[in-house]
Structures
1.
Amino acid sequence: SLFHHRTTFFLPLIIDFGMLDFAFEAEYRRFGLKKNGYVGFQEFYQLLQSIHHIHGVDVLLEYADIHGDLLPINNDENFQKAFASANPVLRIIVTIKGLVLTGLRTGGSGSIHSKNKSSLMIGPPQNFRQISSIIDVDILPESHRRVRLHKYGSNKPLGFYIRDGVSIRVTPQGVEKVPGVFISRLVKSGLAESTGLLAVNDEILEVNGIDVAGKSLDQVTDMMVANSHNLIVTVKPANQRNNVVPRGSKNSMGHSGSVGSGGSIGSALSHDSQSPASHSNPITASSSIAEGDSYEEDDDGDVILENDCLPTYRSHPGTNSNSSTLNRDSPHQGQHSSIPQSVSMPNSLAAALSHSSTMMSHHNGGSAHSVGSSQESMKEDGNVITL
Amino acid sequence: MMKFRFRRQGTDPQREKIKQELFAFNKTVEHGFPHQPSALAFDPRLQLMAIGTKSGAIKIYGAPGVEFTGLHKDITAVTQIHFLPGQGRLLSLLDDNTIHLWELVVGPPREVGGTKKEGGVCLKQVDSYTLPGRPGIESCSATRVTVLFLLKSCDLLCIGTEGGGVYVVELPRLVLKENQTLLQDQVTQSLPDDYRCGKSLGPVESLQEHPQQPGKILIGYSRGLVVLWDLSARHADQLFLGKQQLESLVWERSGGLFVSSHNDGGYAVWPVTSGNTITHQPVSSTIPYGPFPCKAINKILWRTSQTGSPVLLYSGGMPRASYGDRHCLTIQQDKEHVTLDFTSRVIDFFTIHNLEPDKEFDDPLALVVLLEEELVVIDLQTPGWPTLPTPYLAPLHSSAITCSCHISSVPPKLWERLINAGRAQRTRQQTHMSWPICGGKNLAPPPKQQELLLTGHEDGTVRFWDASGVALTPLYKLGTANCFHTDCDEPHDSSNDHDLQQEDEWPPFRKVGCFDPYSDDPRLGIQKISLCKYSNKLVVAGTAGQVIVLALNDEPSDHSVDVSVVDLLQDREGFTWKGHDRLEPRLKPAPFPPGFQPQVLVQCMPPASVTAVTLHTEWNVIAFGTSHGFGLFDYHRRNTVLARCTLHPNDSLAMEGPLSRVKSLKKSLRQSFRRIRKSRVSGKKRALPTPTSKVHEANAALAEQEEVAPVQRRIEPRSADDSLSGVVRCLCFADTFLRDGTHHGPTLWAGTNSGSVYAYALEVPGVGSGRAFERGGASESSACVEALLGKEIQLMHRAPVVSISVLDGRGKPLPHPYEASQDLAIAPDMTNAHSVLIASEEQLKVFSLPKVSAKTKFKLTAHEGCRVRKVALVLFSSAAQEDYSEHTLVCLTNLGDMHLFTIPGLRPQVRYDCIRKEDISGIASCLFTKNGQGFYLISPSEYERFSLSAKVLTEPLCSVQLDRPLHPTATSDGTSMHPQANGTHRKMAGRAEGQTEEPPCSLSSPIQETPLDSPLSCADLTLDTTGELTVEDVRDFLTTVDEAENNLRNMKEEEGRSTGILIN
């Protein structure tokens, strides 16, 4: 009963046609489009219906953006965006409306969806990518807030600045001033500002679980930049009136925003908080962040491009692809960009996809022909594309 | 997760013991010339020389290898030093008017790596003294000390003051003998009225004891009066009514006359005949460089000699108008007259001469001149007074150091050839005198191996230093300027003309010394050096994109150098190089002296500074990189194998050379000067001592900070188009598995500023398994080296790649070319899978090969907030177990601390504070040896040598034969100070930190720890003479706040650029 189509576009060439993946009960097609051919969402929607022979079936269109996130296509604007991001491949997933891909998104009801149907087409919460959340509400003092910013996939800048400052601490000896690091500025329409969770003059206490006390502004800057893809900052908000109060099990607040559809901000429940064992102990709390999978999310996001045409020693010289000999003949040109390349995807599909598309466009330049002519260049083994 | 826990645990006692036996941090010795010397002294009995510096350091030198260092508690200039001859004691006068007594004592035994070491002799401060203010006189300038003078008996110290008083202090207890004090009014009473004329005599300028009659001292006052004072009888024996402002006094050996030097550039000879109480006129008075107004003669020495006329030596006295800016010292004897013309200021000088009382003459042996930038010794016994090469105190900075490179275990053959080449360079000096300052005894065992330190300089020279022991001595100097046509090309054989010229010239100048900070052409500057000690091949690369391959030749040669031009832009469009031009190569044959002679010149285009270079002599290839890309060159066949552009399309900064002037720079310069001015003001405020609690201090600093607009830092991930992203940071050759897991072969690895790594598989004719016979009879000569792109790795965090090295199947670094094939190293394990260690500024990561997947990693920046600056793979040997050693990754961060990690596990071992984090040039200049030592510049002229190894230490170990026991005497106040064994630069607590400990956080820091990148701190930085730092490096300081924000990350990356990383 699970049925969805997966479509891959090549722009501007038609390359390949489908295969049926029984394991996923999915149909897989690949076709090419002229880049300026389709201008409207409706037109495209109909094209897909005709290609997949599913006329009259209501389907949800989603595409994998350059960061590998699934984003909806349901209006002209995000369709344009999706199209623009195809470089050169656009992966689109077609799902029958009402059916939910298990494992991809949890929960979600159609109620929000139907409510909005009349006016603007806004997808259900599960179609939004989470960009920030308040976490560990139950283990932090009420006056503190631990905010997670997902830089991943957002083309917005993180968008904030920090400065040195004075923090006032109450100690047994009385009130003491100690140096601290504060948010000094939020960039307009940056990620930090759009979440509404960080504000100017909030004091920064921890960065991804590491206490910043005693660290210089530059050290804190470096720590934040190093963690910028998945930044978790614990702040003491300057405005203490909007503090989150722990409420039973729903102790995490999430903030989602759809980048694709123009930054509308909705709020949604986020994942459960981490180990309840670590109440009131900030150190374990921080290590739980450090050890948790969330922290390792960016793990091995490095992209490795391999040149498949490297002749192995045993291989007969004659079987070597032309390109390698071609390169040998022209060492001065040096640019081996025309060698067909395969992309090995590390653990994190998201990162790999993001980079592969940019890297491929970068290296192949205008030489899409060579990509097209080589079969092996587009190896997509099942364990890589597992949507 | 498991990994993480394991790291935290880290307290396995067995492992802790091994760590103690392997690692220990010590700053061992300072090489080079002390920065800003301010005082000089000589102990003729012990044959020891002492130099004081403006930062409060005292360094004692004797025979090569004999060195003692002391550091005053306060960073105040040492203005005078006086030895208590033969006692191993010395007195120092500081700028803050305090007098300190130092002693050579046997230090306490130390424990290093579990073994006890006998404490060596070290210099220790035992007492200090301040002259009490005179009751009733508020002004402290009256008791400001101008002269210290030790009587020959060594039991009394005479102190002359600004107020004209002379005080006598008992030694060594430093107790004032109040009844001995001679105030000025006592002297004025006995003066004739017309001389007195109601004016003060001025400060005491000079005190000198009568050479034959102990207890009688000459007192010279600034106004010109000289008094021969009998200390015991307490009356003036004679008065000499000088009318010229006095600068210095010196006795003739017999005591029959003395010489005074004056402010007007003249000197006068005064007779001392008993019975004559008042002398109005000197016997002679001369202004040697008159008749036009001359500068003062600051110091004069008069030495009698057996050969006839006395030798007269004096500094200064030059004609004010024409040569007032010269730094000169004159040696005169009979008709012989030489004006030594130095390139830096004369601080002080002394002669080494005969002191035996029964000898009739001084017979000066040598003249020792301390200049601001070097030490010059003149042989006074050889006719012509040639200079004597110094075995230590080498002026490392004679031209600014731009990079460095260390070679350990130099093969004896190469060593010998280098020494010969160096000797050939020095033939013109005919002196055969042995080094005259030869006190003390060097107890250090002879070095087990020869070590070379190579320094690249701004003037295009590479200097080879013997770094095997405590004294860093010059071996050989290589110039690369003769490969090019430069503006200042001058005919070489001008020496004859020069001599002719000199005969006519007055004063008879002679250029002496080698400090020459003015570079002919900054493009000649050396940026990278790579030497293969087995094949004697050298690659040097410079500022204008020049890469020169040189080979060692014992014979002079006349040949032309092949030139190859490599275009690294590779027709990339939209880029125009706005920087400097390339150097024009010399195409005609040129003579090259014995030593390293250039063979091939590879010119990178655009001619940007070379940022990385590596050499593989077995494959006969070099790789080089600039801010635009990298290239591979087969120097055997003179063939460019590969050129690869690494520029990002949006990168515009890369096209501006370091010498280009961009409009915005002018504006930012103006801004930055304003800021510097501002910070100077606030800097002074901070300097006020506030002996309150640390929190108070912090609060005060913070309150101050609030007034100024706060420094902001932007938090943004690195993006692909950050400028200078294409800079090639490191290159590495390795014989490893890139294609598949069963066949290894030559590979080239390159890492860039934006976290990209390129791996190429090379085909080198005759190298690589299977390949050679496959080609079979194919003519080997026609076969070329080929390169094929194998892999590209884009590190996700995009941080600059600091180093790449390949580890063998056992996780050990691959040996150098020829090491394995000549059985000089254990052959690498080629049976198990190799891995590649990639160190970026933010992370250390080990990837498996040939399929590049991450095996282990350590996120340094995310954990510690510091960034990697330098990385080296070092072999640490255990101090306790003879045959136990470990390969360790040593990592220097932008905070100046050293982190040690196991490889390939990347488990943190220890952390040491090493360099102040504000010391950018120190961090940028740091280099490591293969066995756990290292060097970094503590000033433009000095290398600090340190050791991370518990076993391998190169430190002074010496003794001195003294009249007194070498054990510390009980001090008067009982407060014994720490023996300041080494390090004139204040030691950071050499504290080792296990990973389990939390880094210390103190509240006192914000004052000193002004962020380095903050524009506020730039006033304190001495960037001037370290050629390594370019405009780009300091652009942080030059940009406006907004620009700084934008450029911050890029520029930070830039700071760390430079100098050799010892991973090859």
2.
Amino acid sequence: MLRALLLLVSVVAIAHAELCKPDAQNAFKVRISIKTALGDNAYAWDANEEYLFRAMVAFAMRRYSSKSTTQISNVLLCNVTDRVSFWFVVTDSSKNVTTVPGSEVEAAIRMNRNRINNAFLLSDKTLQFLKITSTLSPPVEPSTPVWIIVFGVVLCLIVAGIVFLIVSGIQKHKKKNKESTERENLEEKVEVTLENGIPCEALDLKAGHINGVFAAEDERFTSL
Amino acid sequence: MERKCGFLIPYLIMLIAEGMPLLYLELAVGQRMRQGSIGAWKIISPYLCGVGVASVVVSFFLSMYYNVINAWAFWYLFHSFQDPLPWATCPLNSNRTGYEEECEKTSSTQYFWYRQTLNIAPSLEASGSVQWEQALCLTLAWLVVYLCILRGTASTGKVVYVTASLPYCVLIIYLIRGLTLHGAVNGLVYMFTPKLEQLSNPKTWISAATQIFFSLGLGFGSLIAFASYNEPSNNCQRHAVIVSLINSTTSIFASIVTFSIYGFKATFNYESCINKVILLLLNAFDLEEGSLTADNLNEMKDHLMATYPQEYAQLMPQIKNCSLEAELDTAVQGTGLAFIVYSEAIKNMEVPQLYSVLYFFMLLMLGIGSMLGNTAAILTPLTDSRVIASRFPKEVISGVVCFMNCIIGLIFTMEAGNYWFDIFNDYAATLSLLLIVLVETIAVCYIYGIRRFEKDLYTMIGCKPNWYWKIMWAFVSPLLIISLFIFYLTDYILTGTLQYQAWDATQGQLVTKDYPGYALAVIGLLVASSTMCIPLGALVTFIRKRLKRERVSTVA
């Protein structure tokens, strides 16, 4: 009985070793860069973290295929290096000693990538699944590009400035023309008579100024 | 413009031998003759009217293509109001699994310049269509120039107060930011260590001389035009010395800022390169993170080569040799320097939007200041001539000139436009300016007579020029310009067919190609149309005088 049990365990162990090895069918390589992501707050990669990883992959498989048959024991890890990098494979417990097709695993991981990243406080770049490309998020683009708005503002200011300068130039020109025509008209009227540069019409010949020196005051002359 | 260390010595020597005397000469001529370049040279000798016309033609070519730089500055300025900056990251490809292929091969800043700004064609022949975004920016640039020159040179003088002083403020801000950047010291050390083998290379002296020419604006006619508005008793000798000293100090100050930012960019790129190599080795050999650092990289590389020779040999082509010297030596030529290198440095700073806006605003101020000088050089002869000035007000003349230049400038906004821009940039001004300034110096010294010129200066300023000025004008400057001229000609002849750098989108880098026939014809036309004005002008005057003399003799 004990011997049969031991035989079974060894068979299973050998089978596992067969299923999970570098470049095996349906196996994926994972590369983790904890120190790059977290710096001083980096945690050490140990057996507990490996358990969490296996749990996350099992969770992803359950969510994707929505049948609750994948167990943590179905996820096998091997070849863990110092880097930290390792290979993993998901076995199918319903069929003996086979692995779930790579496409299903890929789709499951893709769907739940965000949850897996957050469980380890990492990002797409620091928790890399080497054969699974991640969908990059495009940058946020507003409906009208920003540069057109700034361009429009500057253009309006410049055009307003040009129009203002041209209009004020035309007004100055008109004023100058009006002044010169007025001066011309004035000179035409006055051409008739000029006395010391003062037009005669402007002089009031009747009213005059009494010059005090020559004003005849009776008291100044001695009476005869 | 290449900026290499040990440049300071040829630069300062050329300033004293060439810059100051020629600047004084042009200012004095303008102030004395009180006319733009065409009228001023006609007064000196009727056979020299061609010199003025040549200056105006060169200024015309320059104004055609120079405003495109302002258009690009506007484009970058408007794009600086986003977070993140558009040239900081590559755009994604169509199925969002990675970045655009062209952007992967080159850097994001180069991709933004070559693809999103210029949308450059693979060669000169593939003209492509006008890029409407660039056309809009060019129109805006011309409207700004029109606004500044609308009221004539009197108002331009007030605008120049702003365009000349603002760059200094920005440079000071950048100096403080630049000197505090990580790796700036590397750039400064590179700038100030003299490299003696460069001093023996004549190309260094040539580029120093050309630099002085362009930064002072000699030979364009703009100096004569501006000086003609000065008071006759203005002390132009003092002004010439002050202006050239301020100009050179500003150049050196700007170089310090440039090199500190250059050093930052080179250090950043060097460290990224090292980090990439470290990551590659860590991933390939599954080593623990942190076991490879910049310090132990070389020893570890040797160790890995010894332990895993086969895998290491497979990796060899991907491992780049990172060198700080190589990064500092990458001298990007021409307009690319201002846009690619600086935008790359800015995207790595904190609050990059602020620095980006400041930098491109400064570039815009400088560009518009240059454009104002150019357009003044074209407009002053036009408004001086009574034929045109009596019929049209100056607003209309300026408007027509700006409009024509804008329409012609649309050529430079096409997909192959940048190649035409390079043609104009390299050939429209260099040879012609040298010839114009040479003829100017010889005309003033030998045809007008240096004693007559001395007397004029004495009447204007009240002091005669001392022996330094006279020796420079009469001997040193002409000899220097003749040797520069000979050097350029031999350089053009020796290199055979002229070549240009075209952007290859598939490789993500510049490749050298030959100019097609019609481009060579355009180059020849550019050079000939300005240089031929001088002998043609003399010939036309000679023929007119002969005809007059014959008419007089027949009448008598």
3.
Amino acid sequence: MPPNMHCTQSSHLLTALLTPTRTTTSPPAFLLPAFAQTSPFSSSTPCSARKDHNRNRGVSALRHTGLGKNQRLSVRLSNLPQPVLDPLRRSVVKVDENHGLWGFFPKERTRISTPEESNMHGRAWTVQELRGKDWDDLHRLWWVCVREKNRIATTEVERKRLGGRFGMYGDHESGQRVAEVKGTMRCIKFVLTERWYAWENAREAGMEDPEVDLYADVEGGERAYLPQEEGEETLSLGSEDDARTDPTQRLPPPVESTVSSEARVRV
Amino acid sequence: MAMAAAAPFKVGMKEIYLPNFTVCLKHTPSQPPTSASFLVPLWFSKLDLRDYLHNVYSLAIGPTIRSYVQQSRIRQGQVKDPARPQYKRWHRPRATKRMTVELERPFVWPAEPEDFKPWNKEENKMADQEQSAMQERLGGTKDALTIPTERRVKMREQAKALLEGRERWRPGGGRGVEGIGMFGR
């Protein structure tokens, strides 16, 4: 639309209404008064932007804005660089092989993964499998899961955009894949929590145990476990059976059989 | 995964080991290749994003990050994680935060797939059109006083054929007891 025209002007209405959209049909009768009206709705003259003759508009002495006394710009208003609007004429950008953003895309470096590619996944790690892993391995696995979740989320957003009004397949497969990743993350947290509780229980037991010294400097050579010998003041709750179950005592000698081997054979 | 190099920016004292959130890369064709936009959690800050991209993706970014929060429009429907789940409740979903970052090295997204066959896009479209056509034929939920033009034209042709004697009337329209006539082979 030309800049001096308003959308309610009759000439614009005419061109808009009489341009054949589907078939050459005349406009309905109730719209005919629009063509009878020849004056625009607005009675004031349309005004366009005029040249601002104030070169120092926005220039502040306090904040040192604007050009310096002898400063010359490298660009002239008459010689401004023009952007290349046609995408086909733009120069091809070479993308680095090891660019960090490739982490948001599938392994094949396509824009989105197909439902088949999304479906090619294994099962989540189980708690039993993760119990044998140390902290560093669990930490690394956690971040692998985080990156995978980011990648799946990027694919989903792009797939929904490309699907348009009717959508595309891949929702279910991505959902299943994310569920497995989340399962792994859940198991990692489970294992770490279990370990923490074991450590906490041991620490609390150690605090109360007189034989354990929690403040010992193990690397310095001090012993943390100091088993105490039983003294006379301790109450002996022994029984007659103690001699049999006492591990420090030697085993009694075996009973020698009086019956000799020759006596066994009796014809 | 290798440890990230020393950060070119000032880092804080807080160490985070097992964070559980998602950062999603957005496609912005109107922006230049030296720019990247992300969908981040609502509590995220620009400093968080800078640290995250450096440590997780080894991404070198420019000094400025721009962010804005996009409010969602009010809509009806199933509310996600509500106190009382109700069908078709008016609610405003959670707002989304977007952050735009300037990249040191440009990045261009891979080309769109030419053929959307693996995603069944055409079939989805056809199925949707078929379904809407069928619903139109059935008359929809409102009182169907208007008969579709197609059906009217077909009925006129059938009536004309009967009157001219080209066809003979048969009970059930020639179909078998089952209605389709395929079982009378």
